[in-house]
Automatic annotation (TrEMBL):
Catalytic reaction equation(s): O-phospho-L-serine + 2-oxoglutarate = 3-phosphooxypyruvate + L-glutamate; 4-(phosphooxy)-L-threonine + 2-oxoglutarate = (R)-3-hydroxy-2-oxo-4-phosphooxybutanoate + L-glutamate
Protein name listed in UniProt: Phosphoserine aminotransferase
Role: Catalyzes the reversible conversion of 3-phosphohydroxypyruvate to phosphoserine and of 3-hydroxy-2-oxo-4-phosphonooxybutanoate to phosphohydroxythreonine.
Record text on subunit structure and interactions: Homodimer.
Gene name of the record: serC
Family: Belongs to the class-V pyridoxal-phosphate-dependent aminotransferase family. SerC subfamily.
Gene3D superfamilies the record matches: Aspartate Aminotransferase, domain 1 (3.90.1150.10), Type I PLP-dependent aspartate aminotransferase-like (Major domain) (3.40.640.10)
Length: 365
């Protein structure tokens, strides 16, 4: 099936990119900055790429308000790689040996918890597994340790569609935040966490580069078993170029940052994201066919999960939505149902088209 126009891509990642970003990348593919070569073909240590690299860091600092007391690393390996790197770099700060607390609110934070068990004591401070990861446990039920090096949480669970409404309060303990699927979607106070990390493939650019924002005083505490490539202090000393960096992904991330700045920055895009989410959730709440099962206070603004109450209609829903140019709505295999990922690059028109289709499908069901 082919389309004579761009589809509305609701994929959870790699996700939709702004059309203007794709067009600029296409126009520069064969001749970047008059060099007669693609950005993928030039030296990562050449002056042209190094200037790009510094500009990417500057724009990200501007967008997120990242103070100079934090290092920005542009790494590879994705969030799963950081699930190993984080305990290897931080767990040794535990008062009585390597230890970390985990708030498990979905499949991704569960993966982080299980990976950390390889490097020390991973303490399950809270979990919503019994609620099928449809909520966030009440803070009064959290059992935070006094001797853990840090508390790890996932700010937005891509699969379950659960999002923390703000940075959790953990009594002055060091916080580590996985922001893979809501980075740059809403304003945050960077200083509330010691470490923020996330892949670029949802709100920034294509897959390949992982952003790690780490307070500088937290570097230099890695375990002796830490591979050099996962040692934050060694990466910082080489401008994230201990090995050849993902140059094209960094370039594309830079274009994404420029696009976001042109929209008015994070404050402006947050308003747009809230409008899109409100539109879709409002429709779901009044529907007799569809339902969202996440506690309202913790609904994600990025990944809207929903189910058809008559699941025998799932196949028809997916076939017809795909034919209408509304693609990638099938939910993750671990959760079932449907999922509409409405990241920064998804225009309001895309959500409006989805709601109109869902309303028409409901009338015909």
């Amino acid at each position: 099936m082919t389309f004579d126009r761009r589809i509305f891509n609701f994929a959870a990642g790699p996700a939709a990119l702004p059309e203007v970003v794709l067009k600029q990348a296409a126009s520069e593919m064969l001749n970047w900055q008059g060099l007669g070569a693609s950005v993928m073909e030039v030296s990562h240590r050449g002056k042209e790429f190094m200037a790009l690299y510094e500009e990417v860091l500057h724009d990200l600092r501007t967008l997120m308000g990242i103070p100079d007391s934090y290092e920005i690393l542009l790494l590879q390996g994705g969030g799963l790689g950081q699930n190993a790197a984080i305990p290897m770099n931080l767990m040794a700060l535990g008062k009585n040996g390597p230890k970390a607390d985990f708030l498990v609110t979905g499949i991704w934070s569960e993966k982080s918890y299980k990976e950390a068990e390889k490097y020390g004591a991973a303490h399950l401070a809270a979990t919503s597994a019994l609620e099928i990861f449809n909520t966030i446990p009440d803070e009064a039920s959290w059992s935070l340790s006094d001797d853990a090096a840090y508390v790890h949480y996932c700010a937005n669970e891509t699969i379950g569609g659960v999002e923390f409404p703000g940075v959790p309060e953990v009594g002055g303990r060091l916080l580590v935040a996985d922001i893979s699927s809501n980075i740059l979607s809403r304003e945050i106070d960077v200083t509330k966490c010691g470490v923020w990390f996330g892949g670029a493939q949802k709100n920034i650019g294509p897959s390949g580069v992982t952003i790690v924002i780490v307070r500088k005083d937290l570097m230099g505490h890695s375990m002796s078993i830490t591979p050099s490539i996962w040692d934050w202090s060694k990466q910082a000393a080489t401008q994230s170029m201990l090995n050849t960096p993902p140059t094209f992904s960094i370039y594309m991330a830079g274009l994404g940052f420029k696009w976001l700045l042109a929209q008015g920055g994070v404050q402006a895009i947050e308003k747009q994201n809230q409008e899109k989410a409100n539109l879709l959730y409002s429709f779901l709440d009044q529907s007799s066919l569809y339902e969202n099962r996440v506690t309202k206070a913790y609904r994600s603004r990025m990944n809207v999960t929903f189910f058809l109450k008559d699941e025998s209609l799932n196949a028809a829903f997916l076939a017809q939505s795909n034919a209408a140019g509304l693609v990638a709505l099938r939910g993750h295999k671990a959760a079932g149902g449907m999922r509409a990922s409405i990241y920064n690059a998804m225009p309001l028109e895309g959500v409006q088209a989805l709601v109109e289709f869902m309303r028409d499908f409901e009338r015909r069901a």
